[in-house]
Design brief:
The chain is of the alpha/beta class. The protein is built from 8 helices and 15 strands.
Length: 354
């Protein structure tokens, strides 16, 4: 059989494979503008260009391909290019993520290797807990506190519905470990009593609110930011659990404060895994205990019953009963957080303060 003549149609060019060699160099984007991420919704990011400045503009953006799988979250400082006019139909592009001062993370459970970044660059974690309807879950609070301390963030415990139950027990549990407590209740006129205290505490900061559904988190957000219009759910009479209403995290600017103030409202959570938390970081959050623990024997776990633990000796060496009681309360609280990290407690089990 004679050889078939060459035909140009026999040449196959693979799509996207041109003759120009690829380069690993990326554009410098010298004209990029700095912005703050305030909302994330299915691959689209709402950012504020020049936040707090005279040219503040709300812009819709997408993530540049070169960022790969890097996660962009509310609170992030990013560089954007493209159309930053904020006009309808405009779309900018996020090309860089700035260094993060703090990163609040959680995992699905204590064995899940996948970290979920909740918010970046926040100063304070506000753990919102109802005193009743639904009942407070102290183990959940412990886990949130542990995650915040690991992220080097301050913690405020916002206790809602104080018209239904006393806040004394929970206050006594968390004051020894440096958690600030703010108590709110619904007044006769429907206004939230204690809201001014919370607003003053958060002034000038970026704070993230976390809590179970139904504890009043969205109610607090709507009171702090009247234009927020965050959906509010009710508590199931049978299960005692709230219905998820917030579906995505969003950063909102709080009006009426002395300094620029932001709160990040997050969807209600049922668990707060701590697989990412190094137990040693928890001890570093307690400067007084960390100094004492330097005298512990090598390999000391610092848990109750650890032989020759210097922390127990520190409690017993107190000069008087009042000091001894204060030291014991602080050590007990620290050990409770440590046990939460080690996964020896059930984070979802409802429990009352003891």
């Amino acid at each position: 059989m004679p050889a078939r003549a060459f035909d140009e149609r026999d040449v196959r060019i693979r799509p996207g494979k041109g003759s120009r060699p690829r380069t690993k160099q990326r554009p410098e984007h010298a004209d990029a503008r700095t912005a703050m991420v305030v909302a994330v919704d299915r691959g689209r990011y709402t950012v504020l260009v020049d936040p707090g400045g005279p040219d503040e503009t709300r812009v819709l953006a997408m993530k540049a391909r070169e960022l790969g799988r890097q996660r962009v979250v509310p609170g992030d400082r990013v560089d954007v290019v493209g159309d930053t006019s904020g006009d309808d139909g405009s779309l900018a592009r996020i090309v860089r993520i700035g260094d993060r001062r703090t990163v609040l993370r959680r995992t699905a459970d204590d064995t899940d290797p996948v970290e979920r970044v909740i918010v970046a660059n926040a100063d304070t974690l506000v753990v919102v807990t109802a005193l009743a309807d639904p009942e407070p879950r102290t183990r959940m609070i412990d886990r949130c506190v542990a995650a915040a301390y690991d992220a080097r963030m301050d913690v405020v415990l916002a206790l809602t519905k104080a018209d239904l139950a006393s806040a004394d027990e929970l206050t006594a549990m968390y004051a020894p470990i440096g958690v600030e407590v703010v108590v709110t209740r619904r007044g006769d006129d429907g206004a939230i009593v204690g809201l001014d205290v919370l607003r003053d505490r958060l002034d000038g900061e970026i704070s993230v609110l976390v809590g179970h559904s139904g504890v009043g988190k969205s109610t607090l957000v709507n009171a702090l930011v009247p234009d927020a219009r965050r959906a509010i759910g009710r508590v199931n009479d049978v299960t005692g659990r709230g219905r998820h209403t917030s579906t995505s995290a969003v950063a909102l600017e709080v009006p009426g404060t002395r300094e620029p103030t932001w709160v990040v409202d997050t969807p209600g959570v049922r668990s707060f895994g701590l697989a990412h938390v190094d137990p040693a970081h928890l001890l570093h959050a307690f400067a007084d205990l960390a100094a004492v623990a330097e005298e512990c024997p090598r390999g000391c776990t610092h848990l109750e019953g650890s032989p020759d633990c210097a922390l127990d000796e520190w409690v017993e060496a107190a000069a008087d009963d009042e000091t001894r009681a204060a030291r014991a309360a602080r050590l007990t609280s620290f050990r409770r957080l440590l046990l939460s990290r080690l996964g020896t407690t059930d984070a979802d089990a409802p429990d009352r303060p003891r």
